[in-house]
Automatic annotation (TrEMBL):
Functional description taken from the UniProt entry: Catalyzes amidations at positions B, D, E, and G on adenosylcobyrinic A,C-diamide. NH(2) groups are provided by glutamine, and one molecule of ATP is hydrogenolyzed for each amidation.
Active site positions, chain numbering: 343, 447
Family annotation (PROSITE patterns): GATASE_COBBQ
Record's protein name: Cobyric acid synthase
Organism annotation: Thalassolituus maritimus
NCBIfam families referenced in this protein's UniProt entry, alphabetically: cobQ (TIGR00313), PRK00784.1 (NF001989)
Ranges where the CobQ/CobB/MinD/ParA nucleotide binding domain occurs: 13-238
HAMAP family tied to this protein: CobQ
Family of this protein: Belongs to the CobB/CobQ family. CobQ subfamily.
Superkingdom, natural source: Bacteria
Lineage of the organism: Bacteria, Pseudomonadati, Pseudomonadota, Gammaproteobacteria, Oceanospirillales
């Protein structure tokens, strides 16, 4: 556990950003992989995350997808300590609150300030546990510390940094424009102690000749009296899990040369679409063109339509009908197309959806698409499972690995034709999913279906009748983590960074 100069590295570093999507998550991911490669015991930490993409820990908890990727960069099994508070928006005005991996409450916009009272002690306790276990903890902020309206109850940025007395570096996205204003403006709205806590800047997503930026870098260092630790290039075609929003760059790249791809997949973008990281391996497949279809779009021409997961299934089902996607799906089936429903999308395929405890709102119950003979009832306890297993009725047994995150319990005759025989982390065995009698429709609660090459090839063969070679997404992810770390090592001053980490 030594750095390149031979001295042991211990301490904490927090990465904050001038805006959302400034590059905090990938920065923490890169630094974690760099430190791991140097033999340093390192763990990621995000006090509070807000995202609909999540992952399941080995002990049946739930954390943000970005922290799962960061843990992988460290070579660690997933732990709820990496992300003790996760907020999952149910609507524009309410969020489910997950503390230490379990849903405990729901907050509306008027009560959001209560999050500090509700969760800060748990945040600090999780951080202290990590400090005891690892030499270095790399902390990711949330949004921006310049959101002055949120400072009173902040547990995610300077409120956390001040409480634990850790140094901060500030990253900003130059691709948006105004990077010097973003950096200096953020510093200027902070208190004196918070300003002193910022030990350096990172400029992210720079394109062009670095010498043309140098005058600005010199001015920034003189004006702010803080070093610029690195200028990071715009990284093209990075194939890593998106933290929350759809990976638009990967999507755009996938749409190139459609005539050279033999399987066309379309996915309607639901207002509360969740865990769409399920589909990033498909966008990396050389034989697949995957299109996300927005409001008013057309599902025609697809070989496979996928109904994705949803945080608010009945509301998103209403949206499908409002857009006329339900009629398009039925026309697709009449012409022999295939349909796959995952998690909330699977629930939509049944006859009815019931929410007697108003977990997702006040609708109570609604009609499903009526494509599978089953009913789903939402229950307060959430199913959080890491699963493994195999197909039930395929010609050759195909293995499946993934995870489940859902509140619904489905019952009905359709489940007598299951897709998978699964085993969860507690060694409980059960069947999952359903297959229509004509084999056109599959439904499952398992996320991460396409991560393994064997299952991805199996599903693509079901859709097209052809044989495909696929690559494990884990192999791609590891390769991309090292590529990201290589770029950061090349463009940041690691010696200064290590000094900052050890400064407190």
């Amino acid at each position: 556990m030594v750095d390149t100069s031979g001295s042991r590295i211990t301490g904490t570093l927090m990465v904050q950003g001038t805006t959302s999507d400034a590059g905090k998550s990938l920065c923490v991911t890169a630094l974690c992989r760099i430190l791991k490669r140097k033999g340093i015991s390192v763990a990621p930490f995000k006090p509070q995350n807000m995202a609909l993409n999540s992952a399941v820990t080995n002990d049946g908890g739930e954390i943000g997808r970005a922290q799962a990727l960061q843990a992988e960069a460290c070579g660690l099994a997933l732990s709820t300590d990496f992300n003790p508070v996760l907020l999952k928006p149910n609507s524009d005005m309410t969020s489910q609150v997950i503390i230490n991996g379990q849903a405990v409450s729901e907050l509306d916009a008027r009560r959001f300030g209560n999050i500090k009272e509700l969760a800060f002690e748990q945040v600090l306790a999780a951080f202290e546990r990590l400090k005891q276990q690892y030499d270095v903890v790399i902390v990711e902020g949330a949004g921006s510390p310049a959101e002055v309206n949120l400072r009173k109850n902040d547990i995610a940025n300077m409120g956390f940094a001040e409480a634990v007395d850790c140094p901060v570096i500030l990253i900003s996205d130059i691709d948006r424009g105004g990077v010097f204003a973003h950096l200096t403006g953020t510093v200027n709205v902070l208190s004196a102690s918070e300003q002193a806590r910022i030990k350096g800047f990172l400029i992210n997503k720079f394109r062009g000749r670095i010498e043309l930026l140098q005058d600005g870098v010199d001015w920034l260092e003189e004006h702010a009296e803080k070093p610029v630790l690195g200028v990071l290039p715009y990284i093209m075609d990075l194939r890593l899990d998106a933290e929350d929003g759809i990976n638009r760059a990967l999507h755009a790249g996938n749409l190139v040369n459609p005539d050279q791809k033999s399987v066309r997949i379309k996915i309607p973008v639901l207002p509360r679409i969740s865990n769409h990281t399920d589909f990033e391996p498909l966008m990396n497949h050389p034989n697949v063109i995957l299109e996300y279809i927005e409001a008013g779009g057309d599902l025609a021409g697809a070989d496979l339509i996928i109904l994705p997961g949803s945080k608010s299934v009945q509301a998103d089902l209403n949206y499908l009908r409002e857009q006329g996607f339900d009629h398009q799906i039925k026309r697709h089936l009449r012409y022999g197309g295939k349909l796959l429903g995952i998690c909330g999308g699977f629930q939509m395929l049944g006859d009815t959806l019931s929410d007697p405890d108003h977990i997702e709102g006040h609708q109570g119950s609604s009609e499903g698409l009526g494509l599978l003979s089953m009913t789903t009832t939402l229950a307060p306890s959430k199913q959080l499972k890491n699963v493994r297993g195999s197909t039930v009725d395929s010609d050759t047994e195909v293995s499946v690995v993934g995870y489940e995150i859902h509140c619904g319990i489905s019952r009905g005759a359709a489940l007598d034709r299951p897709l998978f025989l699964l085993c969860d982390q507690n060694e409980q065995q059960y069947t999952d999913g359903a297959c229509s009698e004509d084999d056109q429709i599959w439904g499952t609660y398992v996320h991460g279906l396409f991560d393994k090459a064997e299952m991805m090839s199996h599903i693509l063969s079901w859709v097209s009748g052809k044989t495909f070679h696929s690559e494990d997404w884990q192999v791609v992810r590891e390769r991309e983590l090292d590529r990201l770390a290589d770029i950061y090592e090349q463009h940041i001053d690691l010696n200064k960074l290590f000094e900052i980490i050890q400064s407190h």
